[in-house]
Design a protein that fits this description.
mainly alpha; 0% strand
Length: 192
C-alpha cells in the first residue's frame, strides 16, 4: 500500500513546494521593487532639498502600497507550502546523540512516534487555522491599506496546512510499514 501512495504523496508535496517557491519569488521581487522605490524617492527628496534639483520621476516613486499586507499573507502560505516536502523527505533537524546507540528496530519505533507527534501537531495547527479562517470570513475583517479580506491569506495558508496533514498521515503509514517490515528508514542528508 505504501508503494501505491508514495507517488501521489511525492507529487502533492512537490507541487505544494513549487507553489510556495513561486509565491516566495513573487514576495522577494515585490520587496526589492518596494525598497528601491522608497530609496529612490528619498534620494529625490534629498536632491531637491540639498541641491534644489527638481527630479519629478524620483519623487513620484515610493514603496508599493500594502506591501507588508501582501508579505504577511504570502509568508503564511509559503511556510505551510514547504512543510510537506520537508516532512516527506525527513528533512527536519534530528539530534541523534543517543538514538544511534539504540539500534535499527528502536529507531524505527522512534520514527513512528515522532511521525505520530508531528501528525498531531499538524492536525491541531490545521484545525485551529481552519477555525481562524472561518472567523476572519465571518467578521469580514480587511487589511488596512489594500482592503482585501483577511480570510484570503488564511485560506491560502490553510491549503498548505491541509496538504501538510495529508503528508504527515502518509509518513505515519510509511513509518508503521518500516516498523512492521523491519526495513531501514530514509533520512535527508542533513543530520545534527
Amino acid at each position: 500500500m505504501i508503494k501505491i501512495l508514495e507517488a501521489p504523496a511525492r507529487w502533492l508535496a512537490k507541487t505544494s513546494a513549487m507553489l510556495g517557491g513561486f509565491v516566495l519569488l513573487a514576495v522577494m521581487i515585490m520587496t526589492v521593487i518596494s525598497v528601491m522605490g522608497m530609496s529612490l524617492h528619498k534620494l529625490g527628496r534629498f536632491l531637491k532639498k540639498s541641491y534644489e534639483l527638481e527630479i519629478a520621476p524620483l519623487l513620484a516613486l515610493g514603496p508599493i502600497p500594502g506591501e507588508t499586507e501582501m508579505i504577511e499573507a504570502g509568508m503564511a502560505f509559503i511556510i505551510f507550502a514547504f512543510m510537506p516536502i520537508v516532512t516527506l523527505n525527513r528533512g527536519h533537524a534530528s539530534v541523534e546523540i543517543l538514538t544511534n546507540a539504540f539500534g535499527a528496530a528502536v529507531n524505527r519505533l522512534i520514527d513512528l512516534v515522532a511521525d505520530l507527534l508531528l501528525l498531531s501537531v499538524a492536525g491541531y495547527l490545521a484545525y485551529r487555522h481552519y477555525l481562524g479562517t472561518l472567523d476572519k470570513y465571518a467578521n469580514g475583517e480587511t487589511t488596512w491599506i489594500l482592503q482585501f479580506p483577511l480570510w484570503w491569506g488564511y485560506a491560502g495558508a490553510l491549503f498548505g496546512a491541509v496538504i501538510f496533514v495529508m503528508i504527515c498521515v502518509f509518513c505515519v503509514l510509511r513509518s508503521f510499514d518500516h516498523l512492521l517490515r523491519g526495513t531501514s528508514r530514509q533520512a535527508s542528508e542533513i543530520l545534527h
